[in-house]
Write a structure and sequence with these properties.
By secondary structure, this protein is mostly helical. The chain has twelve helices and two strands.
Length: 261
């Protein structure tokens, strides 16, 4: 029998093994600090630990920390303030003016579509598993986030407060990450972290106030998880993500929405 000739991967347009670029240590530090800011673990106005402490925590040199800080400063995420009351201070996002949203949303449309598809695939599965596997500690984390989000949405004035918008997004991340933790699946937790961090810039730039119903779906998701109803938890998570996507796209000017239809 004649042997079947296997394709030569080295001559293929889609090689089996891709090239590798070694990341500099400071780039890994940038990635970690950026993710912490994007997930709301450090809020606008908060100070990061001093250079010395960061170097000890991350097991790198202070020179590496300084290189990473320069990158984050250039991205507008941090400012280095001098003096006794100074330090590494997290900056708030520059929110867009209504006239700027059209161009920005047009450039971000493909990214947002992909992100919401990614969230639907991962977070519905995480909610279902969380309902089956949640422990008391997970419910406690979820309740804590719920209470704070309720407070931040309690009045029209609270919903329009810029600091409350940032804090709500941080609590929202805590809620969704607590669900992923309750699912007790490392890969799902990584996926949820990745998608939440990726939404920080495109979403944070266009929301100038919290919607009246910003916290509507969270209580239902929590109740399904507490009741250990896996199907309902996944269903309510799907409704929540789709409602979030609709709310975001409602901010698009009519010209953009017409292109989507």
């Amino acid at each position: 029998m004649e042997a079947v000739k296997q394709p030569d991967a080295s001559k293929s347009g889609d090689p089996a093994i891709g090239s590798i670029r070694a990341a500099a240590t400071y780039e890994l530090v940038v990635e970690q600090l950026r993710k912490a800011i994007f997930l709301g673990r450090f809020m606008p106005g908060d100070k990061l630990p001093p250079e010395r402490d960061l170097a000890l925590q991350m097991l790198v040199s202070r020179t590496t920390i300084r290189e990473a800080i320069r990158v984050l400063e250039g991205e507008g995420l941090l400012v280095v303030k001098r003096g006794a009351a100074g330090g590494l201070v997290v900056l708030g996002q520059n929110r867009l003016k209504p006239a700027e949203i059209e161009v920005y949303m047009e450039t971000q449309r493909g990214l947002l579509d992909s992100l919401f598809e990614y969230r639907l695939a991962n977070e519905c599965a995480a909610a279902s598993l969380a309902a089956k596997r949640r422990e008391k500690k997970h419910l406690k984390l979820l309740r804590k986030a719920l209470v704070e989000m309720d407070t931040l949405c309690a009045s029209k004035e609270a919903r329009a407060n810029t600091a409350n918008i940032s804090r709500f997004f941080a609590c929202d991340s805590e809620f969704h990450l607590a669900i992923a933790q309750a699912a007790q699946n490392h890969y799902l937790l990584e996926a949820v972290e990745k998608s939440r961090a990726a939404m920080f810039l495109p979403v944070g730039k266009v929301f100038n106030r919290l919607e009246d119903r910003a916290n509507d779906h969270h209580q239902g998701i929590y109740q399904a998880i507490e009741d250990q109803n896996a199907d309902l938890a996944a269903q309510r998570m799907k409704m929540h993500i789709e409602a979030t996507r609709a709310s975001l796209y409602d901010l698009m000017p009519k010209a953009i929405k017409a292109k989507r239809s």
